[in-house]
Amino acid sequence: MDYLGLNDLIKRALEEDIGYGDITTRSLIPAEQKARGLFVAKTPGVVAGIKVSQAVFAYIDSATEFEVLKDDGDTIEPGDVIAVVKGKARTLLTGERTALNFLQRLSGIASKTRKMTDLIKYSPAQLLDTRKTTPGLRVLEKYAVSVGGGRNHRFGLFDGVMIKDNHIQAVGSIAQAVATARQKVPHTVKIEVEVETMEQLQEALEARADIIMLDNMDIYEMIEAVQIVAGRALLEASGGINEGNAAEVARTGVDFISMGALTHAVSSLDISFDIVE
Predict the structure, then answer these.
(1) Which of 12, 35, 115, 147 minimizes the number of CB atoms within 10 Å of its CB?
(2) What is the CATH number of domain 6-112+266-275?
């Protein structure tokens, strides 16, 4: 992946783990001893972040060799070797946990996303992530969502207008909030409004919101909302969506389904790093 801030992120992660030095490895392993290590899948899933793991070892020692056998987006099964790392044993032992943390976390997100996109692939609806990400890891976690087949919602507060309940409360009405935002943001920026009732839906529609988020509505309300809007705005379903109801939500006719659980409630994929020589 191409992310200018990756080295800074890796630097902070390694500093957090290594501190003043890996005293175990320095005590046991001669400085010039060589080793080979394997990243091995323990459970099925989708790889994401292998280049980040590669960058971890390269940051410690640029002479480390890293052979990618399963690239980002590839499916893996238990026992599959994802990558082979060769270099100084100290480098491999010191970097393994940080490299694994990135790889396991991002692969878990990609695997969850792939599972969800497979559930709705027979509909036009597209799966979106949210801003419910690990602080400092948003770019990587949203990258993992894209690897899994999902699409990225806004990256932050800077690249899209999202008028939520607290904004509406502070401004006074949906109509006023949309009108004010429309006057102050560039014409290239879309305006999205979160609604909880059909009355709010109608107000957002009349205010000419570009996207309307249906917050925690049930299936019947979503169907009604699709009929009311009739293509005059994009509709996004959000809240309470999971593996059990995603396909049903997609069949209502909404354009997007957003799930915070893709990043904030996902389990890391089980991957090991084994020194073999």
Answers:
(1) 12
(2) 3.90.1170.20
Catalytic residue annotation: 97, 132, 164, 194, 215
- What are the domain boundaries of the chain? 6-112+266-275, 118-264
First to last CA, the chain: 29
Distance CA 272, CA 41 (A): 7
SS3 of residue 37 by DSSP: strand
CA dist., res. 108 & res. 215, Å (int): 26
Separation of alpha carbons 77 and 215, rounded Å? 37
Taking Cα atoms as reference points, which of 218, 226, 216, 178 lies closest to residue 195? 216
Q: Given CATH 3.40.50.720, say whether it is the number of domain 118-264.
A: no
* Residues 17-70: tens digit of each pLDDT: 999 999 999 999 999 999 999 999 999 999 999 999 999 999 999 999 999 999
Q: Quick one: residue 231, left, alpha or beta (phi over 0 = left, psi -120 to 50 = alpha)?
A: left
Quick check: pTM over 0.85?
A: yes
Question: Rounded to whole angstroms, how far apart are CA atoms 103 and 262?
Answer: 16
